Amino acid sequence: MIELEADLTLQNKRFAGITLAKGTYLYCGSANGPGGIAARVKRHCKATKKPHWHVDELTSNGAGQVVSVLVVPGGDECELRAELQDQSLPVPVPGFGSSDCTECASHLISTGVGNHSMVLRSLAGAA
């Protein structure tokens, strides 16, 4: 879960000029490389890093902050996205985080909520 403290205009050439509104976003990704999920999350939490993945633009240079992580051992990022995506909300950036995926419009999900604690309560079934 990534919290954007302010609107963010993307600079990545594929998405250049698209603005994400301040708020809470869910990003569904995998971590099959060295170090697994722990290394990937640690990297995403660093404010300064060389951009590699689309999500790096949201988590670099103070743009946004990782506020929560859900790990699903043996899970599939596409299945998780399908379960979490509210079909009534538009896809914030088509193709974001899913350039190698033929099933998903995006792996970035807008929660439609500006407060991450409300999103966590909703995911936990307490809202």
Keywords:
two-stranded antiparallel ribbon, 4 helices, single chain, alpha+beta, four-stranded antiparallel sheet, 127 residues
Describe this structure in words.
By secondary structure, the protein is of the alpha+beta class. Helices cover 24% and strands 14% of the residues. The strands form two sheets. The protein has a four-stranded antiparallel β-sheet, with no helix packed on it. A two-stranded antiparallel sheet has the order 2-3.
Overview in brief:
By secondary structure, the protein is α+β, with helices and mostly antiparallel strands. Helices cover 24% and strands 14% of the residues. The longest helix has 10 residues, at 36-45.
Q: Tell me the structural class.
A: alpha+beta
What separation lies between the terminal Cα atoms?
17 Å
What is the strand content?
5-15%
Biggest β-sheet description: 4 strands, antiparallel
* C-alpha-based Rg, rounded: 14 Å
Pick out the low-confidence regions. Answer: none
Give the helix level as a range of percent.
10-25%
* Spatial order of strands in the largest sheet: 5-1-4-6
Q: Figure out the total of helices.
A: 4
The ordered H/E elements are: EEEEHHEHEH
User: Quick one: how many beta strands?
Assistant: 6
Principal-axis shape: globular
> Taking all residues together, what is the mean pLDDT?
86
